[in-house]
Amino acid sequence: MSRIRFKAIEDSMNRQPLVVPTPEGGVSAYFGENVFGLDAMRQFLSEGAYNSVKGAMERGERIDRKMADEVAAGMKAWAITKGANHYTHWFQPLTGATAEKHDAFFEPVDGGRAIERFGGSQLVQQEPDASSFPNGGIRNTFEARGYTAWDPSSPAFIIGDTLCIPTIFVSYTGEALDFKTPLMKALHALDKAAVDVCQYFDKNVTKVIATLGWEQEYFLVDESLFNARPDLAISGRSLFGAAPAKGQQLEDHYFGSIPDRVTSFMRELEIESHKLGIPIKTRHNEVAPNQFECAPIFEEINIAVDHNQLLMDLMARIGRRHNFRVLLHEKPFAGVNGSGKHNNWSLATNTGKNLLSPGKTPKTNLQFLTFFINTVKAFHDNADLLRAVIASAGNDHRLGANEAPPAIMSVFLGSQLSAVLDEIEKKAKTGKMTTEERTALKLNIGKIPDILLDNTDRNRTSPFAFTGNKFEFRAVGSSANCAGAMTVLNTIMTDQLIAFKKEVDAQVAKGKDKDDAIFVILANYITETKRIRFEGNGYGEEWVKEAKKRGLNNFRTTPEALEAWMDKRFVKMFERHNVLSEREQHARYEIYLETYVKKIQIEGRVLGDLAVNNIIPVALQYQNVLISNVKGLKDVLGAAEFRKAAAIQLEMITEISNHVAGIKNGVDAMTEERRKANNIDDWQKKAYAYCNKVKPYFDTIREHIDKLEMLVADEAWPFPKYREILFTK
Ligand code: ADP
Ligand code: MG
Known about the structure:
- With 729 residues, this protein is of the alpha+beta class.
- It has three domains: 31-178, Glutamine synthetase, N-terminal domain (Ubiquitin-like (UB roll), Roll), CATH 3.10.20.70; 187-580, Glutamine synthetase/guanido kinase, catalytic domain (Creatine Kinase, Chain A, domain 2), CATH 3.30.590; 595-725, Four Helix Bundle (Hemerythrin (Met), subunit A) (Up-down Bundle), CATH 1.20.120.
- Helices cover 53% and strands 12% of the residues.
- It has 28 helices and 17 strands.
- Strand 10 and strand 11 (291-296) form a beta hairpin.
- Helix 8 packs parallel to helix 19 (482-509) and helix 16 runs antiparallel to helix 17 (435-445).
- The longest helix is centred in the C-terminal third of the chain and has 55 residues, at 582-636.
- The radius of gyration is 29 Å and the shape is globular.
- The model has no long low-confidence stretch (mean pLDDT 89).
- The structure holds adenosine-5'-diphosphate (ADP) and magnesium ion (MG).
């Protein structure tokens, strides 16, 4: 009956792994070969042009027009040797995907000929016809156009036949319309704030960069099965599907052997990533069936963000060559784990020191404790903002379900460091510390690293965990642009470090010893932030109760979580550090609400269509089979025997009717709520309406569909089932 489903299963079973040839010479021979990095620049640029790009990369210096022309010429020459014939400004609008508009290198000239053309002006600035990107009203009221501007701090690269130039995307009135602009501003602010604090400990520190190592989780689904599930294809997640007999309960997938077809996909992904300079290092299976993860070596955040965006793009492209569709949705399947994107974050100095790595000498220990405790303080004071920045329709299914970090923001430090903090607090409380005591404390802390480096002290249920030499923000969604979370994290850290320095300086001005002042202030922070520290099981119900007692927020839905964007305290903080203006924040708030509404709206439409047009008809057809069976029995059996023989069928007929009615009534009521919600103009109210009035019907409708899936003949069921989607290799 459903030829599509059977064809899809057949296709998926007959797939052979592609042979992926390994390029010659090992990774070192081709790593970064498609990137206009320092080596390529040295070869294709004059010394002056090379130095001006380097100055821009390292010190944010301006590149003048003449130099830009030279850089463009060199970049083009390099790109053409790589077979490129188009170029594009590559940017990261607030949709979450990346955007590109390809232009050819050539321009037609008189006489029907063409000349190759790509100069400084094409490199530096473009005006994409991008009026359909979300702008939260900025461009409607001010100026209709936006433009992209070259970001020389992230190197250009080639994909296929196109030279891609990383850019930022701003409106003509200067407002950021993308993820990168505020991120770069936050990183700039952090550099200064962190260097100022480092100066207490080490005069040689003149630059601090923030580092990011992301871990990308994803699902792979066979292309034919994917195409036979319009809910997956259109909304990115399955909106129905009965739980398979076997899910992840055996935990046999995690770190299990990787199937051949997946291995060849991963192999090609690695090779192409390496050619683009993305330092992918690990790959393994994840907890859920057909779920995987890959992670690179950490990099400076600006580059790491670009690399993650590029990787997501590559995954989709390469996946298709292997007849896979890559699902980046946070929760594509109910009942099995969802996908996250852990953001490992730390700070590194120009002197080669990781500021979140416990030191071996008393001086570096105090520096470590300073950055460590200031991070905890920043997280504590701005927890709602961190919750806001990871909010999305997809992530709502993950946070707070019993598998991902809860929606309650807390910090895990591990028993060793918790003990250290408690000791500092106690010592500071008992009055003045003697010099010996201070030294003792410092020496004590000197023992930390050895214990920390063995990874037993781990908590996988915390949204923000210290893991020995970095913090891991684990609540970020798998489809998110890391730049969102990283902008917030680095801004709150900036704000905190500035406040800390002010306090220390004030104490020192009063004649207090600097180290003492630092200890006392850190001790106060330890006291003030206690409620945010949690070392227990974040998945448990007890934590929800305990967190409530502690006064920690638990925003379970996106509209609730997003409200923090408009909190005056946060608005002022972003303004203070010149990361986002109030207008820009307001625009962002609207865009996030709008995106949320549209996602739920699309899901509602797809679910309604499939339920009414595909599932109800199949259920009724099967019911007719049962009805003719009953009629036949009645013809051939006597009354008493008939009653016995037809009992189950009659029950099933009624059950099917009930589920059909449940679906149809649910869809009708949902559609009515959608209509009402669509008439609301205010984005916040609209988002709440979609969240509280429309979305709850998804569950009721689904429940009936999943029951029908178990009732109706397998051969009649029109859509690939969970067991087929999740267990084909
Ligand atoms: P584990 O796998 O035990 O969590 P890893 O050291 O492999 O520990 O780290 C996991 C991720 O954290 C990787 O992506 C890695 O690049 C990243 N990472 C490690 N050190 C840092 C750091 N200093 N800053 C940012 N990310 C880091
Ligand atoms: Mg991790």
